[in-house]
Write a structure and sequence with these properties.
Blueprint (H helix, E strand, L loop, with lengths): L1 H23 L5 H10 L8 H9 L6 H11 L20 H13 L32 E7 L2 E9 L6 E7 L6 E7 L4 E8 L3 E6 L5 E6 L3 E6 L5 E7 L7 E4 L5 E5 L3 E6 L10 E2 L1 E7 L5 E7 L2 E6 L4 E8 L5 E6 L5 E6 L2 E6 L4 E6 L8 E4 L6 E4 L5 E5 L4 E2 L11 E6 L5 E6 L3 E6 L8 H14 L5 E2 L3 E2 L6 E6 L6 E5 L4 E5 L4 E4 L12 E3 L8 E3 L15 E4 L4 E5 L5 E5 L19 E4 L6 E5 L2 E5 L9 E4 L5 E6 L5 E6 L4 E5 L6 E4 L7 E6 L6 E5 L4 E5 L4 E2 L12 E6 L5 E6 L3 E6 L12
Antiparallel strand pairs: 1-28, 2-3, 3-4, 4-5, 6-7, 7-8, 8-9, 10-11, 11-12, 12-13, 14-15, 15-16, 16-17, 18-19, 19-20, 20-21, 22-23, 23-24, 24-25, 26-27, 27-28, 29-54, 30-54, 31-32, 32-33, 33-34, 35-36, 37-38, 38-39, 40-41, 41-42, 42-43, 44-45, 45-46, 46-47, 48-49, 49-50, 50-51, 52-53, 53-54
Helix pairs in contact: 4-5
Length: 754
């Protein structure tokens, strides 16, 4: 124990001298040191782990890495200005080399257990031959080349569809990037650019946000679907941010550096409570909002309740042992720490060691849990990945086979099905478990081609589908689970298609009354569709989703009856419901209901009336469209916008919640507009018309999306619909064809405006 304490004290003194040297050279940031090394053409690489460990005294780096750091520090003068990098044999470097040898002789990890030559490098003892497949059937899936020369950290989204990796842009060392990858297909998705290197990253539990903490003490929160900042970057730390953790409800972000812990409101970017002092090595946010942390003071590691700012139980690691890494399990019941040459699993309820993973065998090993805490992965500083059973501490097979490299960063997907490793190179390696068998090469080529296309606003057309008899198609609708696409035909059948398999599932859905269908609706649970039919012969041809709309919250259907009058029917019994309908509504051509509230819209010749069926008439609103009869309408999901299409091709976008409703005209169609629909998030509007085209619009700007309209139909397009995840746009036409286009989905971030 005395020798361990002696080494610890000497290492801390050595680290203090390194920090003093950095101050004497203008205190360059970690990012500046990494960039200076990259452009020095000396071959020196300074990953964040090397710099952090050396300056804090967390561990003794290898001699080559230490001397590389010292050489780069000496490439600045006392004013912080760059000067030539001294050669490796420069006399000013010799004291540092001598002190390293003295420390290595004291290091219990490097000191040999039997007489023999001193181990002065970082080479690990020879390992037994590695079989073709490692533990739990993980296989090497992808060896990828990143945009950066050093990858500092990595994180999976909760659903495993996005892998974020940070680093310094190799072509521009002054720019830091977070590169987003599809870890299943092994294709790049997009990049988030910044000015400071990201040391810590975390996705929110919902997957809608990505938090990035950088070496400049700045916190940035990104929207993972729009790839825009949720709020301006916040500078809350004086030093590099080491940890970022979300609360279970996405509402709070917790960040930590070497001295303090901050909490932030994710909605506003404002502080959420007072900061707490102490170096947090790991943090876990409980469901009740309290925060459990492993906090180190000096060389003592203890559990700490950051909510009450009080310690819990006895110290886990006493002074004299150096804790290098720590991470909580997803449920907070276990804490994994790396102490010297073993990984320990602590029971956080008792503060006792549950298991010792001595075979992890590497100081500075990186650890990661699966979300269900059934799997633990460790990676040594030599890049050896092993899998463990956290409940027993037993290894799960031999080390993973595959690619070896200078890796020091490990990330595991939440379900434990994928592993990513990276480090001080431009190589990113991804392992897949049995459930993530890599697609065949042809599928990967197709995915890369498709991904390249989807990075632009251009939609990708799929081959057309058609009925056996070529009957004209009218309206259409997706089921809530996207597994079915129902299409109304000109001869009043409702056909069912599987949009993924692209096959027709059944001839038609039966209508209970034997009448022609007016419309249909799906229950929220994705069960059978409800087919609505008129009580008597209609007075004009009907089309699906144009002459009927639904208010799911109150179980009502609104339909156009005889003489074009509006009827509000009880969903369950099909009879009149107790709901107000304005006087004078006749010859109604189209209906729409706001998804977010009780507002209904009915279109007549040259005007649209909006009303709430449970409110007095004084709340009614009339819009003068000023053109020919409205032929189609649609509300945005939030009920703020109403799109109206007319028989003369005019497409108007109304802000119906403005004090004085105003509209914007969207030019494009040259004939009647027959179909209108907003995407589920309201960020796209699709229109279809007699000119045989489908057009996509940005409702925020009123501009057509580049690369459109979408063509292919041989006649008028009557219906248009988005799939629930907005990845597919479907349209039906008079030529009897059903056409679909692939669109960028929420899981495939689209390119941001530059």
């Amino acid at each position: 124990m005395d020798s361990v304490r002696a080494f610890s004290e000497e290492l801390e003194s050595f680290a203090a001298d390194l920090r003093r040297l950095r101050l004497d050279r203008g205190k360059p940031s970690y990012r500046e040191l990494a960039a200076r090394a990259a452009k020095s053409q000396t071959g020196i690489r300074l990953p964040v782990s090397t710099q952090s460990d050396a300056f804090r005294g967390d561990r003794l780096p290898g001699l080559d890495r230490l001397m590389g750091l010292v050489r780069i520090l000496h490439s600045y003068d006392e004013f912080g200005q760059e000067r030539p990098v001294p050669p490796h044999n420069s006399p000013e470097l010799e004291p540092w080399r001598r002190r390293w040898r003295e420390l290595a002789a004291l290091d219990p990890v490097r000191r040999p257990s039997a007489p023999g030559p001193l181990i002065t490098g970082r080479a690990a003892p020879p390992e037994p031959p590695i079989p073709p497949v490692g533990g739990t059937d993980f296989v090497l899936a992808h060896v990828l080349t990143t945009l950066v020369n050093n990858n500092w950290c990595a994180a999976f989204s909760p659903d495993g569809r996005i892998l974020a990796v940070s680093g310094v842009n190799e072509t521009n060392p002054e720019t830091a990037v977070v590169q987003l990858w599809d870890p299943v297909l092994g294709v790049p998705l997009d990049t988030l650019e910044g000015t400071s290197l990201a040391y810590a990253m975390a996705f929110s539990p919902s997957g809608h946000m990505l938090a990035v903490g950088d070496d400049n003490g700045t916190v940035t929160l990104w929207d993972t679907e729009t790839l825009e900042r949720s709020w301006p970057p916040v500078r809350g730390h004086d030093g590099p941010i080491d940890l970022v953790v979300f609360s279970a409800d996405d509402r709070t972000l917790v960040t930590a550096d070497a001295d303090v812990v901050h909490r932030w409101d994710t909605a506003t970017g404002e502080p959420a409570g007072s900061p707490v002092s102490g170096e947090a090595k790991a943090m876990f946010c409980r469901s009740d909002g309290s925060i459990l942390a492993a906090v180190r003071s000096g060389h003592v590691l203890r559990l700490w309740d950051l909510t009450t700012d009080s310690s819990i139980g006895k110290p886990l690691v006493e002074k004299g042992s150096e804790t290098l890494r720590a991470v909580f399990s997803a449920d907070g019941t276990l804490l994994a720490t790396t102490v010297w040459n073993e990984t320990l699993l602590w029971d956080t309820a008792t503060g006792t060691v549950a298991h010792r993973l001595s075979e992890a065998a590497a100081p500075g090993a990186t650890v990661a849990f699966s979300r269900d805490v059934r799997l633990l992965a460790t990676m040594s500083d030599q890049g050896t990945v092993r899998l463990w059973d956290p409940s027993t501490g037993a290894p799960l097979g031999p080390p993973l086979a595959g690619y070896k490299g200078p890796f020091d960063q490990l990330a595991m997907s939440a379900d434990g099905g994928m592993l990513a490793v990276c480090g001080e190179s431009d190589t990113l390696v991804i392992y897949h478990g049995e459930a993530y068998a890599p697609p065949p090469p042809s599928a990967l080529l197709a995915a890369r081609a498709l991904e390249s296309t989807l990075r632009t606003p251009q939609a990708v057309a799929l081959p057309a589908l058609s009925t056996a008899d070529g009957v004209a198609l009218r309206g259409l609708a997706f089921s809530p689970d996207s597994t079915r696409l129902l299409v109304h035909t000109e001869d009043d059948r409702i056909l069912t298609w599987d949009p993924a398999a692209r096959v027709q599932l059944s001839e038609s859905l039966p209508a209970s009354t034997g009448k022609a269908p007016w419309g249909l609706e799906f229950p929220a649970d994705g069960g059978p569709a409800t087919v609505w039919t008129p009580a008597g012969p209609p007075n004009r041809p009907l089309s699906l989703l144009q002459h009927v709309t639904f208010r799911a919250a109150v179980r009502q259907a609104i339909v156009i009856g005889a003489q074009g009058r509006v009827l509000v029917l009880d969903w369950s019994e099909g009879r009149r419901a107790a709901a107000r309908v304005p006087d004078g509504l006749s010859d109604v051509f189209a209906l729409a209901a706001a998804p977010s509230g009780g507002v209904l819209a009915a279109a007549m010749a040259e005007r649209v009336v909006l009303w709430n069926p449970t409110a007095p008439e004084t709340s009614d609103l009339e819009l003068a469209v000023g053109f020919s009869a409205v032929s189609a309408m649609a509300f945005s999901p939030d009920g703020r916008l109403l799109a109206t299409g007319s028989a003369d091709g005019n497409l108007l976008l109304w802000d119906v919640k403005a004090p004085a409703p105003r509209c914007r005209r969207l030019p494009g169609h040259t004939g009647p507009v027959y179909g209108l629909v907003f995407s589920p998030r309201g960020d796209r509007l699709a229109s279809a018309g007699a000119d045989g085209t489908v057009q996509l619009w940005d409702p925020a700007t009123g501009e057509a999306i580049t690369g459109l309209p979408l063509t292919g139909h041989g006649g008028a397009v009557r219906g248009v619909a988005f799939s629930p995840d907005a990845s597919l746009l479907a349209a039906s036409g008079d030529d009897g064809t059903l056409r679909c286009w692939l669109l960028p989905t929420p899981h495939t971030p689209r390119a941001r405006p530059r």
